[in-house]
Amino acid sequence: MAQPFVEPCSRGVIAAEPCPRELGHEIPLRRRQLVLAACVLASSMAFIDGSALTVALPRLRADFGADLASVQWVLNGYVLALASLTLVGGALADVHGKARMLSVGCMLFGLASAACALAPTAAWLIAARVVQGIAAAILTPASLALIGATYPRDERNRAIGVWAAASALTTAGGPALGGWLTETFGWPSVFWINPPLALVAVGILLAFAPEDRREPRRFDVIGAAILTAALGVLAYALSQIGPSEAQGATASPPLSAMTIAAVAGLGVVGLALYAIWERNCGQPMTPPRLAKNRAFFGLNLATLLVYGGLSIMFFLLPFDLVDRRGLPSTDAGLAFLPFTLGVGLLSKVFGSLADKMGARAMLIIGPAGAALAYGWMALSQEASLMIGVIGPMALLGVSFAVLVAPLTASVMSSVDRADEGLASGINNAASRIAQLAGVAAAAGVASFASGYEIGLAVAAAISLAGVVVVAATVPPPAVEESDLRQA
Hints:
It is a single chain. Helix 2 (29-64) crosses helix 12, helix 6 (153-185) packs antiparallel against helix 14 and helix 15 (359-379) runs antiparallel to helix 16 (385-413). This protein is mainly alpha-helical. The chain contains 19 helices and no strands. It is globular. The protein starts with 10 loop residues before the first helix and ends with a helix. Residues 245-251 have low confidence and may be disordered.
């Protein structure tokens, strides 16, 4: 939920939960509806926070006098904690109860949001954002799993529809709301949205949440720590790309190319250590058997590439709109609506089309369209707002509407039913790692004189690489679902 765009595979966590009706403890309709409302409110905090904060970054950077390499950690401190701890958060929900951990996550998120709003320095804000990320890693899987544990299987699609619609609406309205709040009250007001939502959600849960069914599980804390360190080092190395003189007066001394390469190498070594640990850990976050599943591995690699490209664009565009085009924050936020509305309104339509023509074609068309949108945006930087931003953003929204539903379906069908919840969590983590790397890379290339065009070119290139990965690893429609699971 950290991102200003739709997560690729959240609903799998809901669908994988055991049916309460089959377990003999069906929950009354009114209580189900109120629990769903609390889960939607909890998820909405992260959706609004992610999409609204994107537009506030230029003003936030100016107020702190910070360089881009520092500003990117306002986003990446959050994402780093969320990406590396989400699967641990899911285990905590199983052991200590979904409703209980959702309440804990909401309260922690609300308190961290208040700390963000009161931040006197960039370092304080980044630290508070890390705490927000930890809270989101607790509340995100707990909210999704609680919906599945509350609704019988034959009613889950309707509950998922309500949750998805609310997510789309809050994501769509986030940039415009964030722009208006930033322009009217300043960037701290973006964070003051969350504490009231957290209190309402916790109040509903305390009054109406059903008794939790708990499962004994172990936590892969060492694996999470290794992954966090490796991703943090890689993100730092990526953010140091580019000339330091373009990064502002408060920029730290520049790193040489050799030093950046050495730091990146440490990150790669850390990822290798994580892979070794997961093979020998008794309760791994990412079981090695899933890495041997060719289709599942390819879909997650494509997710990394495609969402990495999207993250680059989402980081660069607000600075172009506010700093270069001179738009007020409210208008800059409205420029994101073609994308978010396109995804929110058209995903279901293209999901139905994918059922008829096969997911593989849609998974190729979507990233290819995204690459075209990035190229259009890069070549039209000097054009009018309508041609240079609104047009390509509309194309990008349609492209991701083509992509999101087939990606969810393909990830779910590539694994056995018992692994669907885990597969969903891993795919969400992949999208967050993509945001971490994309934002760090964007902060680095933005320091160049033509950083906007370079960043969008990189986004287009890695989106096209996603097309190649899908074509090479995802079986054609003629392959039966049972064969796909064994691919």
